[in-house]
Amino acid sequence: MPSSKLVMITLDGCRYDTAVEELGYLEHLTEKGLAARYPVMSELPSNSRPLYEVLLTGTSPCENGIVTNLSVRLSEKESIFHLARGRGLTTAAAAYHWVSELYNRAPFVFHEDRVQNDERKAIQHGMFYFEDQYPDSHLFLDAHYLLKTYQPDFLYVHSMNIDDTGHKFTSDSKEYRQSVDKADLILAEILPVWVKAGYQIVVTADHGMDEYGHHGGTREGVRRVPLYTISDQVEARVNDEDVPQLMIAPLICRLLGIAPSVDMKPLEFPGLRE
């Protein structure tokens, strides 16, 4: 029986072409038939908070109202966290504090909301950071602590160093590539542990980055992002056709074995096994 537990990882600001060139470990898994890779076309605007909501609710900004990074309020849509908790599953997140603001409490109260454990909340177990330079190495160990301690059915991991570096040095810089490469090194160390523990893995990004250290608009570099899956439910192959970002949330629901929300689009995803 395939596992239905899942870790979803968002590499904030990681563009597709750089991922293919620099995520050597994930590309190794793809090359050896152990993972699938897809290009994803993000929704607009290609900014962080709106696309967190897209990824986690499967709804577009014009539907959910989270249209800018200044939309500081709880989501009004059912997220994957809500759907999983409603099915009696355990949820957890190691993520940027905007994720807590969308699904647990807004605004974020720094001295109270850094670590959260509340079975009544959408994200039942959370460790949230609020500095963009918070090290990815620490973030993934936060996630590992949550995984070991609470054995969540759905664990969301959101790293910020690639985006932070892109804004400082642009997507054309050696620093940006090094940041993507460092994330790959961390994934190479931790993913085998999580897979051995029985977890499916989904790795994606919210948006990309351009040569000006910017994102938000329509250009390919800021909209096309990677999607990697490690799951017995998905054929391990390289796919060339863009997947709409709105398909990711219903895909996660499918892999978790839970029903999607009424607002999610019907799942159309190449390579799914019946």
TrEMBL record:
GO terms for molecular function: hydrolase activity. InterPro entries: Alkaline_phosphatase_core_sf, Phosphodiest/P_Trfase. It comes from the Bacteria. This is Nucleotide pyrophosphatase. It comes from Sporolactobacillus putidus. The lineage of its organism: Bacteria, Bacillati, Bacillota, Bacilli, Bacillales.
